[in-house]
Every structure is written in structure tokens, then in C-alpha cells.
Amino acid sequence: MKSKIILASISILLFIMSTNAQIQKNFFVDDANGVDFVRFNVCVNDEAKIYKVEVIPDKTTYTNETIIKQLKEYLLGIQFYPDSTLRNNCYETTSTLVNSKYQDATTKGQKIEKGFPFLKGDFRYKNPVYSISKVKRKKHVQREIGTHDKQIYTIEWLSTREYTLIYKRMTRKQLKQHIGKSINVEILEVFPDSSYVYKSTGDHFDWTTYGVMKKIK
């Protein structure tokens, strides 16, 4: 089946500030392997418009060139505020490709029993941008250790398909303001290789994040 972007359900959240800008976008497509990612390097001209878009292959997991071309066209149409500090500069941004079967997916978990496999262990994110981070999980604590930072969350399991991460200790400056706040995570599907597709939301941000987490130990 030829893949297509479901335009009516496209979720694009564009946050623009005079000192910084972030483009966060989720696209529902038919052929994503759970959740895939395309990492772009984009350049902004003096008029605060994106004029150049290039794929970064080693940070990309999605291969459908037709869809990638559409994503490039979307990015090339973005205009930032005239006084944006992004003018005359280049930066990286990620497009998230979510399999369309997860668009309206709901979860129904069971009570956590002894030996539940995701309760403890070492995990990795599928997203190449974060795959270098070591995620170590105990019953009530999740540590995410990157190259230059470390984030610690309290983890509370609500069922086998849902858990909450509460910011406890952050070394990344922009995350310290969220200490005490929580992220709700729903597990949408579990695969035989001990990985799962998740959807996360939080009261302190206005977007939904999709991803894949894999248990490696």
C-alpha cells in the first residue's frame, strides 16, 4: 500500500519566541515502523524564512522519500518572526512519523504483578537523537544519563500500560523549572523484542510526544 500522510490528523505545534524557536511535529503515516524519525538540518535567511533543508542520515530511521519530500516542503514554508535570533543561522529539528494505527489508540492495562518486565532494567530510546542516553529504571526511579547531563524521575506505575514520570532532579537547565511536575506515559503496543510504542503528555507542555523505548537488559 502506498504510504500517505493523513493531512487531517497532522499535529504540528510551532512555538516561536523572539530569542528561540522550536518546531515540534507529529505526522501519522501508513508505513512507519511503530514510530520513526527524520532529522533535518534547516537554515534560516535574513528574512527569518527557512530556505534550506537537508536530511541528516545517521539521525534518521524513516526511508519513504515521497513523505520526506513533503516534510521538506513543509519546512521550507515556515516563516519566523522578523526579529528572530534564528536569522542567518542553521539548526537541527526532528519530524516524528507515527504509524496511523496509533492515531486513536487507547490503552487498557492490568494490575502490576511481580516480574513485570518493564518495571526494572536498562532501556534505550529508538530516536537516534536520544539513543545514546542510558535509561536505567528501578521500581520507583528512572535515570536518564546522557553525554553531558543526567535526569532523574520518580516513576509511578498505574497499570501495565500506563505510568507517570515526575521530575525529581535535572542537570539540564531548561528542565529544572519542571521539578515536581509530571509526564503521563501510555504504552500503545508491546513488541516481542521487548520494545514498546509510547505516547506521552504533560500539563506543562502543549504537545504529544510519540516514541519507542526498548529494554536491552
Helix content: under 10%
N-to-C order of helices and strands = EEEEHEEEEEEEEE
Task: Determine the strand fraction and express it as a percent band.
Answer: over 45%
Low-pLDDT ranges: 5-21
Number of domains: 2
Give Rg in angstroms. Answer: 18 Å
Structural class based on helices, strands and sheet pairing: mainly beta
Main sheet attributes: strand count, strand direction, barrel closure: 8 strands, antiparallel, barrel
Number of helices: 1
| Lateral arrangement of strands in the main beta sheet | 6-7-8-9-10-11-12-13
Protein name: GLPGLI family protein
Organism: Dokdonia ponticola
Keywords: Signal
Signal peptide: 1-21
Task: Describe the structure in your own words.
It is built from 1 helix and 13 strands, in the order ββββαβββββββββ. The chain is mainly beta. An 8-stranded antiparallel β-barrel has the order 6-7-8-9-10-11-12-13. A 5-stranded mixed β-sheet has the order 1-2-5-3-4, covered by helices on one side. The protein starts with 10 loop residues before the first strand and ends with a strand.
Secondary-structure topology with pairs:
Blueprint: E1 11-16, E2 21-29, E3 35-44, E4 50-55, H1 65-76, E5 89-99, E6 121-125, E7 134-137, E8 141-145, E9 150-159, E10 162-170, E11 182-190, E12 195-202, E13 209-215
Parallel strand pairs: 2-5
Antiparallel strand pairs: 1-2, 3-4, 3-5, 6-7, 6-13, 7-8, 8-9, 9-10, 10-11, 11-12, 12-13
